[in-house]
Amino acid sequence: MAERTAPRTLGTGPGRALIAVYGIFALSASARAAVQIGSKFSEAPLAYLLSAFAAVVYIVATVALAKGGEIWRRVALVSCSIELAGVVAVGLLTLFDAAAFPDDTVWTDFGRGYGYVPLVLPVIGLLWLRYAGRNRVAA
Amino acid sequence: MTVNGTLSGIVITLSLLVGVWALVAALRDRAPGRGHLIGLVVVEVALIVLLVAAAFAAAGGDRPASAVTFLGYVVTIVCLPPLGYVLARLEPTRWGSVIVLVVCLTIPVLVLRLHQTWQVVTSG
To answer: Using CB atoms, which residue from A23, A34, A35 is nearest to B83?
Structure first.
């Protein structure tokens, strides 16, 4: 029974609003990575590969939230965690070693270029996954 | 660039109006109504007019600093209203209104960025 209720809770209500925000980030991060890699990859390969990686993480998180179910809930959990680790790690790196990332990525300076949403989003995502997971158990 | 400036202003204003309207609905615990969805369509139409005008300007030799960057923003922006429309229709609760709000707050930011990619050229 719990398996059946999980898809309902994860991608509906606040979850659907979360999907919208993740969708927007998946879209803009992909566009940014495509532009960077397509037009000037040799300038800052590490930063641009990171952009592409971030885009993939956002896409996976969006899909996982939309799909729901136990397996996808775990996938979402992993991608939100990677995202949080990524934004903190890259944020710290850009703070202390700006030379490592000569060009901006979504996660540069803790996502400052994106209104710090990249920093807040995984936290909200993880909280929501926890809440939805609790609902699932209660059901 | 006055044409694009005016058009950008119109798109941003329309988007913010629909956004505020959606915020009111969300605060009142209402699902997005037909009007909100029509608002998203209007914003999309205004966006397309803006982009067509930009394409004409580019054809006339007034090009953005980086055509690829410009195109990247264009692709992202035109996808936003449809994304909001589909998700808002799937979510007939106050959270559907939140979705409309999020999309309508994102569009002005992206239009401003889009505008900046162009101004680099016109000002220098």
So the answer is: A23
Global pTM? 0.88
Cα–Cα dist B52/A29, whole Å: 24
Supply φ then ψ for residue B28, to 5 degrees: -85, 10
Contact check, Cβ <8 Å, A31/B98: no
* Two tokens, residue A78: 């992993």
Which ipTM value was assigned to this complex? 0.88
Whether the pLDDT of residue B1 is over 80: the answer is no
Burial profile B5-23: b = 16 or more Cβ within 10 angstroms, e = fewer: eebbeebbebbeebbebbb
Residues 6+ away with beta carbon under 8 Å from B93: A13, B31
State pLDDT tens for residues B10-45: 999 999 999 999 999 999 999 999 999 999 999 999
Q: Measure CB to CB from residue A31 to each of B66, B72, B84 and give the nearest one.
A: B72
Which residues does chain B have within 8 Å of residue A21's beta carbon, measured at their own beta carbons?
Answer: 102
Distance from CA of B34 to the nearest CA of A (A): 18
